[in-house]
Every structure is written in C-alpha cells, then in structure tokens.
User: Fold this.
Amino acid sequence: MSNAVPPEFDIIFAGGGTTACVVAGRLASLDPSLRILILEGGQHTLNQAAHVQPYRYLSHLASTSTTVTFNVGNPSPRLNGRAPVVPSAHCVSGGSSINFMVYTRAPASDFDDWGVDGWESKNLIPLMKKLETYEVQPDRPTHGYSGPIKVSSGGCKLGASEEFIRVGTTYDERQYAEDTNDLETCNTYSPWAKYIDGTTGRRYDAAHHYVYNQAHNQNLQIWVGKRVTRVIFESVDMRAVGVEFTSDPVSCPDADQSSSTVRASKLVVISAGAFGSPAILERSGIGAEEVLKRCGIQQLVDLPGVGENYRDHNGIFVPYFAADGAVTMDPLWRGKESVVQENLAQWKINGKSLIAQNGSDAKIKWRPDGDELKAMGSAFQPRWKEFFQDRPDKAVAIFSLFEGCIGSFSSILPPRNYLIAFYYTLYPASAGSVHIKLDENGQEAIDFDTGYLNDPSDIVPLNFGYKKMREIYRRMPSYRGEVPAGHPRFPEGSAAVCGETTGPVDLNAPDLIYTAEDDEAIDRYHRDYSMSHPHCDLGTCAMKPRADRGVIDAWLNVYGVTNLKVADMSIAPKNVGTNTYSTALLIGEKAAMIIADDLGIERRPCEPS
Assistant:
C-alpha cells in the first residue's frame, strides 16, 4: 500500500476507524479495480504488539498515548463542576484496535427503534451473522460462523469470574445463561466473550481482517498521519469531489502542516467518528449557522443537527482488595518482567496465557426487579415506565468485574491483587453536543457538552449499581475489602465505611444499610468520578429526517449535497445497549452494501439483499 499519488481516487474515506476499514475492505474485495483511499490521522497498527496482544489495551489510555484523543468536555454543574474527558481512537482501525475487546450485541429492538427504512433488525441480522465467526458455542441461530471477525472466550479464564457468577446467581436469585448476545436475552448472569482469536490469542480488529489482509491490492491505499480538514465541493451542484488534508500534528508533529488536496471521482465517505465527522462537516460549511459564523466559516448547507444528539454510556470502576492467592492481571499490567515473559512465551506457543486476556470474564445485563425498582426511588420511575417497562430485551445497565486494577487509581495503588467492580448504564436519557469553536488564540478547539447526568433519572442506576455490586463482591471468596480511596467517602461512624478485611461475609449475611447521608455520599461520588465508557460515543450525524434535525438519510447521504456520505457510529439516531464495536462493524457491513448498490457493483449471490 504505497503512497504513490494517482491522479484521483474513486472513493476517499475521511477517517480510518472500524467502520471505514469494513466498508473499504468489502468494496475492494467486491471490485479490486476500485481506487480507494483511506486518510487516517493516526498511525498504522499492523502487527504491532500494543494492538494485537490483548492484555496491552490499557496502555492506550495512558496520558502520553498518541493512539487516543482525549476530548475534554465543558465543565458541568451536574458533575460538580468537573470537565469530563472522553477518549476516542486515533489510529488505523479506530476503537477496534484499542478497545477492551468485550463482545456484546444490542438487542434487535434497538435497530427497530431507529425507525429507518432498511435498517430494521430483520435486514441487519444477516449482516450480524456475516461479519463474525462465533467460537464460543456452535449452532446458535443468530450467530455467524464464517465471518472475518472471531469471537471467543479468550486465552484462559480467571477464577474470580466464576465466583461472581456463582455468588450472583445464588445471592441475587437471577438465572445463568451461556449466551446473552442472542439479540433478546438479558437480566441473566453469563460469561463475557471477547474479540480475541481462540487459537492464536490475538485481538480481532477490523483493519487486520478487512484491509491489511488485502495488501496485494495496490488500489486500496491507507495514508496515515493525515488529518482531513474539509470536503471540497463543485460549487454548481454541491457535489463532493475531494478532500483537503494536512499532516496530523499529534502523530506527525515534525511534518509540514501545509494543506494538500486529493480528488474523488465517485464518492467521499466521512468516517471520523462522533467527534471527527461533525467537525469535518462544519469545517466544510455544513451545519448550524451560529456554529459556523463564530468560526468564520461560510455556510453552504443549513443542517442544525450536525454535532447534536451526542449519546454515550456512563460508568465507573470501583476497586476492591483481592486475596493474595487470587490470580489477577495485576502483575502483568504492572509490567512485572518474569510474569510478562512467562505468559508471553506460552502465548506464542498456543495463545492460551494471560496475554490473551482483558481481565473480564463475566457480566450481567441487568434490569431491576420489583423490589429493586422500589429501592431506586421515584426519580427513575418515569424513565422506567416510558422506556424500559414494555421492552423486556433492554437492559438498564451492565454489571461486570475486572480481575485486576483498572481505572484512575491503578497508577497510585501499591502492588497487590485487586478486583474492580465495573458498571455502566446503556440508555441514559441525557444527550449532549460536539461542535468546533475558536479558542482565545484563534485556533480551532472543541465545544463539547457531554450532557452526562443532566436528566435526573440517569444517576439512579449508578447509585443502585454501587450498592448491588458491593453486596456481590462482599460475598465472593476472593474479596478482602474495599479500597477506600476508590469508594464514596461515607461519614465517620457509618456502617457503610470502607476498608480492608480478612475475608468475605457469609452468603446469607444481611445487606449493608445506608443512611440518607450515605446516599448523598454515593451520589456525590458518581458526579465526581463517573465517566464515559470508552469508545461508546455516537449520534452526532444522526440518520433521521432532515426536519427532525437529521444529518443523513437512510442511504447515508448528507442532506443538501451529493456524492457525500457518513458511515460510522455518529449516524446512530438512538443509543444502543451494547459496547459499540459490534454496531460499528454492522454499520460498516450495511454501508458497504449501500455503496456497492449505488455504484452498480454486483454483489456475490450469498450477499444479503
């Protein structure tokens, strides 16, 4: 994939994330003569250990990382004045090269709720099956077994996950299910599958299995370190004919920052994610007048929905002490050389060591029962009745564990074994926005309102989740108490005060009782520390009617122009109850079909119609 510049390309992708790799790879496979260019601001991920060795994923969230952009939101009174930070991928293959690799799929009804012709679940389920090789269980009717993306149980299982499921199903009296990703099952404890090859133990991302594997095709090119600034239009009919780009200042800090252009004869596809895609549109003169005017950009198309409808998942990592004899990821994540080398040697032989782990093997897609709803109080009742009550396939949150310290406290806690309670909401009612602006020096900056916890119902499942997970953890054999620095600061003398202990309580021990002051401490804790579940942002170029502040139509066309599409998670008009890698892959498969049909490319007989 050389950087020799042809006169023009047929299709240009502005962004080289998960969805772009899927679309470009599928189109190149269908018609190798198509001249396709992917422009990506980050760098290559091909066979790089940080991207293909699963256990290394935490390295991408380090403050010095160049594979992630840390998008700083505006301070929010709902977050006690905090400015939340949301990471987004900055490398070839996007989130699929740096994410936590956890495999979840949204319920089928999520796509039906979008209300977009052609995007109903009946049309998408064949594509869900087409894209995956499900190594976890055979003969599951909604799973695929010959697709490019492998899903497995990972390199080995850790014991605490079995404790979590055993205690949960006993104490909690909820059922166990092997597969909660059949597009309808939820509210049961289950193992947590991963985007990891069950044989080689390597991460399964989009780039390696849609694009890098076509290196023989010189018509499919990836130019890294290239930041797309805007789309170029023919002024007569507002036809997209190319893009302007510069060297990316983060991944190529010493490169010439002057602008270059490249032309597209057939199509430009913006695929830069929930942050990058609306920014490219706005820099191109497409968006709300007030946004463009304050940046000195001439408006070409009035689309006030650009950058609006930002949706996310809110969650938090809560640390616990684990028994000295527990097997966790901590020595590996701390870089203990003997442990790393031992596991690496085994991984190279059969892919079965902790190298092929993300530290999370169990979860529950949780819906409250009657008693839990009552305990959650009145603030959540309207949201429950309006959205969840009559949708039994929709979970309110995912509760899970990590066998090893992860999150903001991992760098300051002393070396030992830890467990992390991780819980995050799937359908917060709040929405935010992402726009460009000029800073005090006249340089482009981000105007990012996360919307987190703006709706009073959104914090209720988090507050309940803290208590629920604490009761499960207190009963797990590996439990040795709470890490006080990572928990709410309960009043002195409260029965809820956190600390280290010698072991778990009895399975039938009474639950902790929280006072009104304790509840205030939990609420304050979540406003101070809850965060984006990394790589879950979506919605800012929504696929909705233009009159409803939509940005694109059902065929991914940007309203008001021609030969310009958007294809990435930003097009989702509503939230999805899943870690969004699965949805990004799905959008890519659907987009490839749409573009192939637009260009008159004959799809293979087995291709879904």
The mean pLDDT is 95. The domain at 155-192+314-425+454-529 is CATH 3.30.560.10 (Glucose Oxidase; domain 3).
